[in-house]
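I trust your eye. Have a critical look at both lines of this record:
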Amino acid sequence: MAHEHDDQQEHHSSEQELRRHRLEKLERIRARGEEPFKFAFSRTHLIAEARALFEEAERAAANGGAPVEIPAALAGRMTAMRSHGKSAFADLRDETDKIQVFFGCAQMGEAAYETLKDLDLGDFIGVRGAVRRTKRGEITLFADACEILTKSLRPLPEKYHGLTDVETRYRQRYLDMASNPQVITVFKKRIQVVGVLREWLNAAGFLEVETPMLHPIPGGATARPFITHHNTYDRDLYLRVAPELYLKRLIVGGFDKVFEIGRCFRNEGVDTRHNPEFTIMELYEAYQDYMGLMKETEDMLAEVIEAVIGGPTFTYQGEKISLERPWARMTLHDAIRQYADIDIEATRDRATAAALAESVGVEVTPTMGYGKIVDAVLAAKVQPHLVQPTFLYDYPIEISPLAKKKRGNDALTERFQIFIARLEMGNAFSELNDPIDQRERFLEQIRLREAGDDEAQFLDEDFIAALEVGMPPTAGLGVGIDRLAMLVTDSASIREVIFFPQLRVL
């Protein structure tokens, strides 16, 4: 233990020494009248643009044989420097790419070249010159001038090992991105997912709306909420667990097709698939039911994923996934019979269901009702088999308080979930629009809460009043944006696709 402490002290001392040297360089820069934290820099191209322009010029000049060069002013973070006496090579990186930069004393002049000694890895610099190839064939910016744009006072992680400690990567995401450029690529794909999804929904006639994040009553999902307090009104409020009940109020009011992409908050455990703060897309469509919405969901997800990954097949965590349609469809109870080898649908008795679940190794706690026992069997025995895109539908009424009863079977609801690569990607219902039935479902949720289920839903009188005004037949869907981002970036953990995930306090 003492040895570990000594190592930490040595590392801290080394960092402090490096910072001291950088501060000395900072003072030298200022002493010669140069500002080490510039206000702006007029770059002519992003690095990827400069590379592409140069390669295009090379192709155009292929028959002429004359050397090609493109004037450019580039800016970015310096991530490597190799000095060779009167010349030096550096790596310059911006958001789009990196490029080699050549600094030559003869080209820049002695005085300008000497100022390079005050540069450090991690500094942001602006470089002007011409892009051409070196004798070894590497595309390089040959610098005429270089200026410091921002002096980095803390060193980046060591080049060849990068930032590998997972906790540090998440806590200091700025360092993670600066030292692991592939992380930026992951987040660009996440951003692309949201953009393509929004385009698809707009093209399908859905209108994007915004609903409150502070709720007087938490609702729309079976989840434990976060509580906050509003000082002026002197009342407790809840961070939303789902936008569902407000979006359905809009359907009551006269909108036919709406969607929202936004943050939700659930005071639940953290694992590779759950973060207390997450992003969801919810849509609601009047005059639609869950079977019609199932087909729309299949088209939407397939087209969005294909647009981002570039084709109908991809690999997630070593397994090949095909988006070829139609996707598999099974009732939930058929899936349990197939994968768990028990017929839990044959009973409505809680004790019998618990015994069946426990017989196949599923843990059952005293507060779990019939529906949650079925859900636990799904999670433990069915979901691990759902690698290819699969819809499971017709869920027990006990765990679907906002869904319409299945036509012809009051024990079930018209609900489906979509799974891809073992990840639950979405949840949908034929929405319950009978206010009398909805009140009874809420009252049953209250009974569950009183029995110890702190995730059970609350009674929302205003929402029932809205239903009494009248909501047309409606289907609704929620899709987890973070899960979708995990899928298209081949990320095993949700923390890899959230810029700043929640972590324990050190």
Confidence is low (pLDDT under 50) at residues 1-11.
